[in-house]
Design goal:
Elements lengths: L8 E5 L1 H13 L6 E10 L5 E11 L13 H14 L2 E9 L8 H6 L6 E6 L8 E8 L2 E9 L5 E3 L3
Bound molecules: zinc ion.
The site of zinc ion has 5 residues, from strand 4.
Length: 161
């Protein structure tokens, strides 16, 4: 459950996808990196929607900034075409925070235009600790946490604000 009235999704992602995101984020330092996630939506045991990530698309951050990002529109278009060709649904997007925690910045919230998307944020700010991936639903200027579950484990990471 989220604190808002919006449907609570869980996001299920394979360790390999998570590790690829981390590698992409580390290769992109000092800048933020970004991309899209695609897959399908299943029903969980409690009737909740579970977004199952089947493919991760890595985009160029054309802002080349450590504090914000914009996805390359041509790469976005080719990703959407690839999703259509493979019968995958667009589930949301992700970006990295090189130096700040895994929660949406004021700008992230302001620029979030799609309430059906899951907004994933990968933080590398842990200073020697493991990177942290969290997911959020953002609607009407309010971010509420979604749960990220690693496929094959029972571990849920609950985003907190
Ligand atoms: Zn951000």
């Amino acid at each position: 459950m989220t604190s808002s009235g919006n449907p609570a999704y869980k996001v299920r992602i394979e360790k390999a996808h998570f590790e690829a995101m981390v590698a992409h984020a580390q290769n992109g330092l000092p800048n933020e990196t970004c991309g899209l996630i695609a897959g399908r939506v299943e029903r969980g045991a409690g009737g909740e929607g579970v977004k199952v990530v089947e493919k991760v698309y890595f985009m160029t951050n054309i802002d080349a900034s450590s504090e914000h990002f914009s996805m390359d529109p041509r790469e976005q278009l080719s990703a959407i075409k690839d999703m259509r060709a493979n019968g995958l649904a667009l589930l949301g997007n992700f970006h990295s925070h090189p130096e700040t925690p895994a929660r949406p910045s004021a700008e992230d919230i302001r620029l979030a235009y799609d309430p059906s998307a899951s907004y994933l944020i990968l933080s590398l700010a842990g200073d020697g600790e493991d990177p942290v991936l969290r997911a959020f639903h953002i609607e009407n200027g309010i971010a509420s946490p979604e749960e990220v579950m690693e496929k094959g484990t029972a571990t849920f990471t609950r985003g907190d604000l």
